[in-house]
Specification:
The protein is mainly alpha-helical. The protein is 81% helix and 0% strand. Helix 3 packs antiparallel against helix 8 and helix 7 packs antiparallel against helix 12. The longest helix is centred in the first third of the chain and has 40 residues. It is globular and about 65 Å long.
Length: 316
Amino acid sequence: MSTMATRLSDLFGNSRIVTGLLANLLSSICIVFINKWIYVHYGFPNITLTLIHFLMTWLGLYVCQKMDIFSPKSLPPTKIIWLALSFCGFVAFTNLSLQNNTIGTYQLAKAMTTPVIIVIQTLYYRKTFSTKIKLTVVPITLGVILNSYYDVRFNLLGMVFATLGVFVTSLYQVWVGSKQQELQVNSMQLLYYQAPMSSGFLLLLVPCLEPLSGEHGIFGPWSLPALFMVLLSGSVAFLVNLSIYWIIGNTSAVTYNMFGHFKFCITLLGGYVLFQDPLSLHQGLGIGCTLTGILAYTHFKLAEQEEGKSRLAQRP
């Protein structure tokens, strides 16, 4: 009976993880295309849109707690201030990296997030990764290089912003998981407190990085269709942010990052199918390499989990 109960528990746990990954996949792909529509057709400011995303995330969580979907847990601001700041830092530096680098260089830098997360967790959190898991980074990085080979250009300022962006993004993703364990909170409870704090910091950043007025300024003028699309983007962002916290809290930052590479491949293919974006042969090979690395990571990770369960079962 205990074996059957364990198997049912594992099946339920895996189905929950698959559901969370699927929710993140669909909402992330959806928000990419909504945001692309907003940027192409309306030119809405990028960081201001991110600020709206987090405000609507907090509003969504406020509604959820009023409906008793979760119970807020009082958290000292000093415990989450670095998490909130790291979020703002990754938004600012990744945007500055995109502004000062080619798309290829930007994507190549983002691919470095996975090995940096592994280094941070190994050095500061004493977490161990098998050689097989580490080697899966190789085909993923190769795939990104193939995708962006003809568009990689290096300049000093761009490299500085790209390096800072990778480091702060890695810290943010690691802290999302570690803070849930440290503070004994779930994804909703942590995000409920982090979202308004990050929004406040972003509010200070926006006037420094984006125009306040003019055709593409923060205060518009914006048409009703533009505002509708921005609110729609914010609503989908609520699902994206919540699923990110849930995935990292229930798996790991590395697993979420691997899943991020998978979403990137799906987004490229979606752009090719829906928007007729060009997709060259070397990009197709890059997608193949990346997907191979992701499948290898999934296989090795599941094998390690099964091995760990077998060892526990054999203990007296």
